[in-house]
Design a protein that fits this description.
Length: 290
């Protein structure tokens, strides 16, 4: 495999789908009619995608020794030693400088949010990933910072209900990720990720149920809130709730039936039911708030 392909794999571009969270504000605040706003949000999403790729490189640099003992991660370029550390560091610097430049072009707040994202993830890689429960909150913070970059970062006032729903969704995905890791690894799972020794399947199942319930409730309450109805001039957003419920249930089904769910960026495209639920929700939502 060529060096260019190795660099591309190291960036994990499939994870850029997570930057869709940056578009939450412009979608639900109907801000796409504002001059320059779509361009600013797109650039913010691109900056976050490049920053996320840089963070993945940082994680791979720290974890390359442990990754060699992981059934899937051992194939990553640094763990497999198909790429040098020097090349990875050079790519990391280019990605972070480019992302910071894009962020500063949009707004200083976006740049600050990106720097917080990097610092939090460095702390995660160094020690916080070993702290039970807190590790999942750190994962969730990445999704929340994306939402904030696409709202406060570009001057869109975020809905409190939507922020709460976003937090619950992020925690749901985080606990589902840990549950999938328990499925994927053998009895030596704690040796691959130390924090897994503190998690039991029944504990994670309870947390998944709680956060999934909160996602459905907070999103439902958002669609019915007076502020939402006033913003979008419709009470019909409640009809998008079944798509959310089906998507959540389908994700949980995939997690337990197919031992999937460890990587939401992949799971979305692997499960046609989940993809259709997301696309259906988006189409109906855009039609209602157009």
């Amino acid at each position: 495999m060529s060096q260019a392909n190795q660099l591309w794999r190291l960036m994990r571009p499939r994870q850029w789908v997570k930057s869709c969270f940056v578009f939450t504000g412009i979608l639900f605040a109907s801000a796409w009619h504002q001059p320059q706003m779509p361009k600013r949000v797109i650039l913010s999403a691109l900056a976050f995608s490049l920053t996320a790729s840089g963070v993945y490189i940082i994680n791979d640099l720290f974890d390359r020794e442990n990754d060699r003992n992981h059934p899937r991660k051992k194939h990553r370029p640094l763990a497999a030693q198909t790429m040098s550390v020097a090349a990875a560091v050079a790519l990391l610097v280019v990605l972070l400088i480019t992302a910071l430049g894009l962020a500063l072009f949009v707004a200083n707040k976006v740049a600050v949010i990106l720097l917080i994202y990097v610092l939090v993830n460095v702390a995660y890689s160094l020690s916080l990933k070993h702290v039970v429960i807190l590790d999942v909150f750190i994962i969730a913070s990445g999704f929340m910072l994306r939402i904030l970059a696409g709202t406060m970062g570009v001057g869109i006032a975020p809905s409190q209900w939507l922020l709460l729903c976003g937090l619950m969704m992020a925690l749901f995905l985080g606990f589902a990720k840990r549950r999938a890791e328990l499925y994927a690894l053998t009895d030596d799972s704690a040796g691959h990720r130390k924090v897994l020794s503190h998690y039991q399947p029944v504990l994670l199942d309870h947390m998944i149920v709680v956060t999934a319930t909160c996602v459905i409730l907070t999103y439902s309450l958002y669609t019915m809130s007076a502020a939402t109805i006033q913003t979008h001039h419709t009470e019909a957003l409640i009809y998008t709730v079944p798509f959310v419920i089906y998507g959540i249930f389908r994700y949980i089904y995939s997690l337990h039936r197919q031992s999937a769910g460890g990587d939401p960026a992949l799971q979305i495209f692997r499960d046609p039911h989940l993809l259709l639920a997301i696309v259906g929700w988006l189409i109906v939502t855009l039609w209602l708030i157009r």
